[in-house]
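Re-running Prolyl oligopeptidase family protein to confirm reproducibility after the cluster update. Everything else is unchanged from the original entry.
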Amino acid sequence: MFFQRKMLHLSGFKMELIDRKKIKLMKYIKIFALILIFANCKAQETKLLLSQKLISLSQTPIYAKLTEEIDGQIEFKKQFRYLDSIDIYSITYLSDGLKIKGLLVSPNKKGKYPCIIYNRGGNRDFGSLKIAHGAITLGQIAKEGYVVIASQYRGNGGSEGQEEFGGKDVNDIIILPEVLKEVEVADTNRIGMYGWSRGGMMTYLVLTKTNEIKAAVVGGAISDNFASIEDRPEMETGVLSELIPNYAEKKVIELEKRSAIKWADKFSKNVPILILHGTSDWRVKPEQSLKLALEFEKYRIPYRLIMFEGGDHGISEHKKEVDEQVLNWFEKYLKNNVSKPNMEYHGR
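Result of re-run:
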């Protein structure tokens, strides 16, 4: 009996050792699995920027308009000489598993530069990004020491997927801070956003869905799609009803989703917004920005509103001043990291 008990005791001890080994082995397997998951995540992250192709302007149709011959040499015209200081890339990146096209423009000197996400206007091919946008619209900003990135949005400019005019295509912008993390010269702790017209609407949408943006500028921005279709019925028949999924069944819901004036309380009180609008804008009436500013007042959202007398949709009559205001805003809140405005009522 004594011998049997001893054997049983030893047998139990042996089983306990085996159980401990199994537990230890399971721990190692779990740790190894976590390492694999982490490594896989990192691999996925590095695939965000699927391709980055440097564009040589000399190989594009716009080169002749940007250059002139001086003493037998082809050089950039005086107003375009900054093009020697920047690089322009055509990019493809992933958003919701779709391959999305866009442009990236950056200074060609080493360093770390604040970033600006530019949101294009229009819909489908109207307003789609061309090489000229990279060289001039984005290039004018990049030359001041910024990495500028812009999306064609899904379904446009060779991108996969279907455009939704402020629906799931907003994700194509929200993912861009992650894409920028793969750009060596990009300082992703300082990201601003700039959108015009429909791009302004996209900017408003993004600002309520992420805290990655430190400052924003919008011009001629859509803030009320109900007003848009009253002013321009063709916007409903030719754009909204064609691009927004289930528009006929969910018209009011879908228009509210895309109208910042309906959810001004959702904006962060930490992100200063510069609103620019021309008083003679027929595409997006100036009242849209005026009324949104009143909503921002109500909820104490930091903003500055500038109305340009006689300005059209692009405020082309005041282009120099507009460009200065945009750059000054980003200089202040991105480069100089000025504290947010004090929106509490104060003073004598």
